[in-house]
Write the structure tokens for this entry.
Amino acid sequence: MQTKKIINDGNRTVDEMLEGILAAHPRHLKSAEGSPRSIIARDGPRQGKVGLVIGGGSGHEPTFLGFVGKGLADAAAIGNVFASPPPDPILECAKAASGGAGVLFMYGNYAGDVMNFDMAAEMAAMDDVEVRTVLTTDDVASAPRDQRHRRRGVAGNFFIFKAAGAACDQMLSFDECERIARKANGHTFTMGVALSPCSLPQTRRPNFEIGPDEMEIGMGIHGEPGIARGKLKTADEITDEMLDKILDEMAPTRGDKVSVLVNSLGSTPLMELYIMNRRVKQRLDDIGVSVHATWVGNYCTSLEMAGASVTLMHLDAELQTMLDHPCDCAMFRAG
Amino acid sequence: MTSIDTAGLKRMFDAIAVAIEADKDRLCQLDGVIGDADHGIAMALGFGAVRDALASLDLAATEPTALLNTAAKSFLNAVGASSGPLYATAFMRGAAAAKGKATLAGADIVALFQAMAQGIQDRGKAEIGEKTMIDAWLPAAQAATAAQASGKTVSESLAAALEAAERGAEATKDMIAAKGRSSRLGERSLGHMDPGAASAVTVIGAMRKSLA
């Protein structure tokens, strides 16, 4: 049986979504001339500023293009659903974002994205735009601790891009922006849980099978199988399972500060996210870790998948300043 | 067929597009088990874009190299993903191997095939046994080259390539993924054929049928 979606044509969903987004946010966003899948901040790129280009497959909205705007990313390259964009729109983003001080490419660590962004970086070098790449690898479930470089980038992107975007907006040097981006990634930890699958607009078939009473811990944001499947548990038990793993790696000490993101994978409602956040706060209180800021909602989705993720960013004074730095994007504002 | 011109290469790409379109759902299902279920879509999109781009070429005024470069660019820009850079690099290497030739003779076709496989490996940096399309492409290229060297016809060489690709794809069922999205599954990838190796068999099968 095919899933139900409000679409016109499964092959046109990305382009029609982009038309709708540009219609809704003309003050924030435009597409690059002749490259409709390169979304540029109207008030972002400027001379002497390190440019920040993010991007990846569609279907994770508001990631990536919702985080394009002053104080955050200068441009986002948009791929097909769950598929990396090809090099051309990435290159156009790099050119638009370049203020002569270098351009950072930041995106989740997936083989396809790496190949396409690397090809774009080589092409940008031929146009005298220096590109450096910082991959996000916040998904604790996707590889063992000693193989952090193999992990996927998921909802923690939001914190990592935010910190890097702030560094760029503060006109810091290319080296400093890169350092802060890497540090932000190293301080960010995410765990997800999936309850029901999503379906691609072109197939409208569930992209994995899961029993009516099951959940999968650690599932990826494209429905990649996670680390364990089991019976659906209570919100507190699920949140505990995630936090146990995150806190074990983060190893905070009493008095430390974190920022919290409780994110819906698509169809899990705010009600359930806030129930999870209640438990997150209890657990952090128990160990004397204070919450500097909390975000709850749809930040990195997986189409209509049911499920949620919890992300903690372990803050120090520098990262806290970067998170507090104002930004004004189409789908997110701070400060 | 002893040699192939630009029109013959176009027919080959048309045949691949038809074969992949027919195989799309199976490839998506294979990918759904260990990945994100979009491999068939990406491949169909890519070869559909190649077919459309080649349809607008003036074949009489186009050399094989230019046709292959057009195929590379159209595939890449339609797809992105992993298969985009991998197949685009394959066609670009094929284009380089065919440079300066108006028609490709038997040895040229096998050289083109070998260059494509090498391009995929160079771009994706996968080795045999890592459960990727390389497990089909590399043995296929080796089989074709060996058959050619022992005096076999193009048709026989490509038949040997297809057999090797099929064996390679089958062997991915017993491999634990070490590259690409499914590599995070560890042992849970066991027992399932790699969708990229499966689609490689479909591509190579269509090439053999079209070029034989």
About this structure: Chain B has a mean pLDDT of 93. The domain at 3-211 of chain B is CATH 1.25.40.340 (Serine Threonine Protein Phosphatase 5, Tetratricopeptide repeat). Chain B touches chain A at residues 25, 28, 32, 34-38, 41-42, 45, 76-86, 123-124, 179-185, 188 (CB under 8 Å). The first strand of chain B starts at residue 3 and ends at 4.
